[in-house]
Amino acid sequence: MLPWVEKYRPKRLVDIVNQEKALEKVKAWIESWFHGIPKKKALLLAGPPGSGKTTTVYALANEYKFEVIELNASDERTFGKIERYLNAAYTMDVFGRRRKLIFLDEADNIEPSGAKEIAKLIDKARNPIIMSANKYWEVPLEIRNKAEIVEYKRLGQRDILKALFRIVKSEGVFVPKEVLVEIAKRARGDLRAAINDLQNLVSGGTEDAELVLAYRDVEKSIFEALGMIFASDNAKRAKMALMNLDNTPDEVLLWIEENIPYVYYKPEDIARAYEAISRADIYLGRATRTGNYGLWKYAIDMMTAGVAVSGVKKKGFIRFYPPKTLKMLRDTKEERSIRESIVRKIMKEMHMSKLEAIETMQIFRAIFANNLDVAAHIAVFLDLGDKEIEFLTGDKEKAAKIKGKMLSIHRKLKETKTELEVRIEEAEAVEEAAEEEEVEEELEEEETEEKEEEVKEEEQPAKEEKGKKPKQATLFDFIKKK
Ligand SMILES: Nc1ncnc2c1ncn2[C@@H]1O[C@H](COP(=O)(O)OP(=O)(O)OP(=O)(O)O)[C@@H](O)[C@H]1O
């Protein structure tokens, strides 16, 4: 079955919705190629996922008769390929061969060394090059400077709903309107995600719509991660899939494991993928037993890159399934929101990345189960609430003990605070007294000096009387008068 995102991908530029400004720029740029090689030989389409960037490239090629050479920017093998295509003539030749347009996806995932190569290739190019990125600020500068940036907007809920209605109508299937609205809402501007959800739902029967949508709500990112892991033969890309996930590696492992047989079909490939997963499992187990969470890195490599390169994948649309052992996840939504809140607190207070914070949380779980004193200090430091403490200990009794210890830490902190305040006050009083003393001494000195002057003046009045200036009043005069 053809994936609907492909089946319903607009073939013409006019069918791309809500990106008029971007499309105008793209058209003007491609037309400039018909008058010679333009100053900016590359375009950088930048915007959120599923907003129509790839679709634009293919519709453009279709209308202006270009053949698209699509390459992945983060794959090193790409340079050699581009080099080959760069020498291809850009104008239609006598044999009627098509002009080539190079499309580099994921320009925000290029390594610095790759960036230099691509920049050189752009300089040499005689073909139009279009790059695409979600985060254009992460595209290496040397490439960004050589490209004209075209911004794509995040699609609105209404655009998405309209697209879903169109698909439902042309497939002749019935999906309740509320479900479509729900899908559109949860897609957060990503039309690809919405169309995939819809196809998932329809192919699985709408009776488990609620289940699929519930998973989609909390597991949106894990579905995307699975897509990335299983869709690529590229180890680096597969590893990157886990970068922004909220889930711990052991959970992700279950998801990947569950979906291996839906992705690979040759027995030897399936066996290879399971082999990679079991090695990842060994590393994870060792990490938990020894507390050496550095081992997670190897486990992640095995479960992503190791699985991704295990063999030939099924073509077309692949429906992913939640692991059976996690079927109860839906009921533990609250638990996951507690966990997320702990991770956020660790990130904030300890200035950590998400993965580091998740790793630290695992260490805290061991501490909370075994050392209540240290646990109480951590809880005070992170300002943890009752539910968060219970989650970390996994035991209500221990949690209650930790809370008792926290009370005494809070009390001590208060006492230390007041003690500190008293000491500060005392120190300030001593300082003030010293200052007063100094001022008095100065005053006395001034007074004696003045008295001496007066005596001198009285002694020789006649001599000085003539050219004497009136004496200017000083602050001390004023104080004396008082
Ligand atoms: N503006 C749009 N108009 C019509 N259809 C769209 C639009 N944006 C996305 N789609 C639909 O969503 C699917 C995914 O879009 P596309 O591949 O163009 O996304 P993208 O912006 O390239 O995303 P990514 O950055 O993740 O590669 C397409 O198959 C198409 O059906």
From TrEMBL:
Binding site for ATP: 47-54
Keyword hit for Transmembrane: no
Transmembrane segments: none
InterPro entries, sorted: AAA+_ATPase, ATPase_AAA_core, P-loop_NTPase, Rep_factor-C_lsu, RFC_lid
Top-rank taxon: Archaea
Compositionally skewed regions (Basic and acidic residues) per UniProt: 458-467
Compositional bias annotation for Acidic residues: 427-457
Chain positions covered by the region annotation Disordered: 425-482
Molecular function in Gene Ontology: ATP binding; ATP hydrolysis activity; DNA clamp loader activity
Alphabetical UniProt keywords: ATP-binding, DNA replication, Nucleotide-binding
Residue span(s) of domain AAA+ ATPase: 39-156
GO BP terms: DNA replication
Function noted in UniProt: Part of the RFC clamp loader complex which loads the PCNA sliding clamp onto DNA.
UniProt record similarity statement: Belongs to the activator 1 small subunits family. RfcL subfamily.
HAMAP family per record: RfcL
Assembly and interaction partners: Heteromultimer composed of small subunits (RfcS) and large subunits (RfcL).
Name of the protein described by the UniProt record: Replication factor C large subunit
Species per Swiss-Prot/TrEMBL record: Thermococcus aggregans
Gene: rfcL
